[in-house]
Design a protein that fits this description.
6 helices; 179 residues; single chain; mainly alpha; elongated
């Protein structure tokens, strides 16, 4: 069910960028910290793994695909379309996120108190503006963000279960039997 929410949202955002042709008003190059202070000005090195499309630098996809995909796909011939399709979708999401931030001014990404908004707030505000700026559009973008967060949480739980089962073997497998 999450797939359809996110898929139709991505299609709507791509269409709004193509049809609406928004102006990219952010400067091309800025300082990494961009004038942030306190907790918002975090070091570059740990955040590098988050900023480049969900960890392609850290090898997250290699770890996940080697353990999870091989156990969930019945035919080895299906692995290439599944992994290529997911990487293509992730690339589109990364380009959309970049486009959303590029259409916002610095004032749009700061809150009432002058502090930097969170990534979720910036994404929701910018994507909602691309879809017309209505409260319904912002609510749908918020739903997309929640769906992506829940999908990642379910992935982590599934990988944890598979890892525990591999380490513990048969002893870690819980089953309910009728007596």
């Amino acid at each position: 069910m999450f797939f359809y929410v996110v898929f139709f949202g991505l299609i709507a955002l791509v269409a709004s960028i193509i049809i609406g042709n928004p102006a990219y008003i952010r400067p091309d190059y800025t300082d990494f910290f961009a004038g942030l202070t306190g907790a918002a000005a975090m070091p570059l090195w740990p955040l590098l793994f988050v900023t480049i499309a969900c960890g392609s630098v850290s090898g997250w996809h290699s770890l996940v695909s080697s353990s999870a995909t091989s156990k969930q796909i019945e035919n080895e011939k299906d692995v290439a379309p599944v992994t290529a399709g997911s990487m293509l979708a992730e690339g589109v999401l990364a380009l959309l996120a970049l486009s959303i931030v590029a259409t916002l001014t610095v004032a749009d990404t700061t809150g009432v108190d002058g502090k930097q908004l969170s990534a979720a707030a910036i994404f929701t505000k910018g994507a909602g503006a691309l879809l017309g700026g209505s409260s319904t559009a912002s609510a749908y973008i918020g739903l997309i963000f929640v769906a992506l967060a829940l999908a990642v949480m379910m992935l982590v739980v599934r990988l944890g279960r598979l890892t525990i089962h591999e380490i513990g073997g048969r002893k870690s497998h819980c089953s309910i039997t009728n007596t």
